[in-house]
Amino acid sequence: MAKPPLNLPELKKQFGPSLPEVPPGGWQAAGDPDRLVATHCCFCGQQCGINLKVKDNKVVGFEPREDFPFNRGKLCPKGIKRYMQNEHPDRLLHPLRRTDAGFVQISWEEALQRTVDEIRRIQKAFGKDAFAVLSGVSLTNEKSYLMGKFARVAIQTSNLDYNGRLCMVSAGAGNKKAFGIDRAANSWEDIVLADVIMVTGANVSECAPITTDYIWRARDRGAKLIMIDPRITPLARTADLHIPVRPGGDAALMNGILHVMLQRGWVNREFIDSCTTGFEEVEKAVLAYTPEVAGKLSGVDPALIVRAAEMWGPAKSSFLLHARGIEHHTSGVDNVLSCINLVLATGRIGKPGCGYGTITGQGNGQGGREHGHKCDQLPGNRDIENPEHRRYIAEVWKIAESEMPHKGHTAEEIIQLMHSGEIRGLFSICFNPVVSLPDANFTKEAFNRLEHYSVVDFFLSETARHADIVLPGSLHEEDEGTTTSAEGRVIRIRKAVDPPGEARTDWHIILDIARRLGRGEYFDYSCPEDIFNELRVASRGGAADYYGITYEKIESSNGVFWPCPALDHPGTPRLFENHRFPTTDGRAHFQPVEYKPPAEETDEEYPIVLTTGRVVSQYLSGTQTRRIAGLVKQYPEPQVEMHPELAARLGVRSTDLVRVVTRRGEVTLHAMVVQSIRPDTIFIPYHWGDEKSANLLTIRALDPVSKIPEFKTCACRVEIAR
Ligand SMILES: Nc1nc2c(c(=O)[nH]1)N[C@H]1C(S)=C(S)[C@@H](COP(=O)(O)OP(=O)(O)OC[C@H]3O[C@@H](n4cnc5c(=O)[nH]c(N)nc54)[C@H](O)[C@@H]3O)O[C@H]1N2
Ligand SMILES: Nc1nc2c(c(=O)[nH]1)N[C@H]1C(S)=C(S)[C@@H](COP(=O)(O)OP(=O)(O)OC[C@H]3O[C@@H](n4cnc5c(=O)[nH]c(N)nc54)[C@H](O)[C@@H]3O)O[C@H]1N2
Ligand code: SF4
Ligand SMILES: [Mo]
Prior knowledge:
This protein is of the alpha/beta class. Helix content is 31%, strand content 18%. The relative contact order is 0.15.
């Protein structure tokens, strides 16, 4: 007999957002869960609210969380399927050691002691910095903070960095330079109130799907939409203006738009004079970027630049959003600054409907870039080379300041030092560099040269295959903690189930290693909340101040926006109100930007531009989403997007196998012929490893300031594969 449908709104009214027990009448129709746990999606930076259904210590399903204000019940395909990891047959259930005959199961005692012995041996023979640590920001704030302290205080290496180096660092550097703080300037509610929205280098509908809803709500009010992307992404199809920029051309394009705005008098002189510095240099710099020049450098029709200025310049309210499309470049920081210049020139910031933000990528891409597992950073977004900041954190950590390591190398530089033999040992958690770093053949060689590598993961990732010791860690739903969403809202991640088999929560593993290294006294925590309370103190007075945020406060208000410097402070959804900026002089800082060509331009041998990115159903290096059937079905393997003109020139039809070749490597994949991409550019999503990895092709060129790799442009050629 068919089961009656659940009346969710009614149940919610009765039991609140977190239903602790089986409601009267049971949950039969929903698979009889014992309870619902109100938490968040483990994937992207939107951090949608989601209820996990739990039965017999297993996650058996999900429900949208109507009570969480950001997504109000909406989820994308990944959120809907995320619960399927918990029971996955590939879960790592025991510690493993690599032998010539493959991985063998070992005891925790052996796995942990072996790791500690190797850290000691390598550091004794080659110095402390010869052992490196790599971390990641799918981890909670608690674990991100813990990893920073663990590397500096337990392992005592300066060589610690994180996977946000491939993600948020160009935006972070630009934001700090211009605003003195690294966070989206507004909560997303201000998007809804904007009259014009400019989105550049962001495939919102596939990568920040719930943000689409905010943009559509603004569109319902009549807001205009400008999309800048070499591809007509799903959201771009609905835009008033789409500018198909050539990958790498953004700074020229933005300078061109500002050039026209200056000519037409569409800048806010009053705001510029009283609230900013540096505009004169910017004015001088953009003088040369006439629409014709800017159009030539960025590969677009000059008329589109004028049109964008006409839409953006005179508007009353506006919101500018960008993501990795402009940031994954050797000019990533400059591109970000060129966007900020466009916002500051109008003075449309710090007010309702007036905003700016980079769309944070990873689940905790925001919190994870504030609490000190970057090579140059201490908690609270403090500077590891600032004597005052070092003293403060040394005091919180109860170590001598002289013991605090100095700035270390960034993620890609660590790989290069592994390759050259200066770094001999590695401990990593929550990072899959063999798939996610550029020039994958080089990365693999670097891993093969390590004397020792220990990894914490819950699946055997492509990188973990290179490990000597594999430590089975915990999924998102197996631990308590907090994350910080793209909006800057600090939220609670709740534990739903225990790790399966012998797997352990990540923080227990880290604490155990710290103890075995003889540093246990510095890691005396009995639960994640203890770690959070220390983080609060460590962040106090820093640029990312969490001091006033407690677990209790997060729970009672469904999240708290940082900065929140005092217990009675309500948090800060909108930054820069009253046009005060947290810089040394209280002003926002314009920065002049010049167009610089990409590291590798096309030529006769490699005449086509290759750009890489994402599809909606897959997530990052794919270790999680490539294991979920429904998501695999939606997009089973990478395809090469190309324009019909290019396809005709090459004699390629859709679904033909093509070989894409760069100076680093080659891949053979099926072609997907689409009208929605520039004829001189191809696009390949990067979520696969081994012979399907887009990163076999990409270039190891880095932005000089942020050290982000240039994932978004290099030169390639395409051949039919027979
Ligand atoms: N489905 C899904 N969602 C995700 C993720 C995922 O893996 N899958 N990952 C999350 C993470 S960590 C991140 S960082 C974000 C990334 O989110 P996005 O940055 O939105 O995603 P990408 O696909 O990397 O790139 C965005 C767009 O940049 C365009 N682009 C390429 N080159 C240029 C250029 O030179 N200029 C401009 N203006 N545009 C360019 C591409 O055509 C692409 O449409 O997504 C998050 N959300
Ligand atoms: N060509 C190309 N390359 C790119 C990009 C691109 O656009 N183009 N984008 C870049 C960007 S923006 C990013 S963010 C990076 C991402 O690159 P990575 O950070 O390497 O990708 P992830 O898939 O997140 O890898 C995280 C690993 O940690 C594990 N993990 C996840 N959560 C947890 C946890 O809570 N605990 C533990 N112990 N393990 C966990 C996963 O199983 C996975 O193996 O890729 C970058 N690489
Ligand atoms: S938009 Fe992001 S956070 Fe929301 S359900 Fe999808 S992947 Fe999860
Ligand atoms: Mo990212």
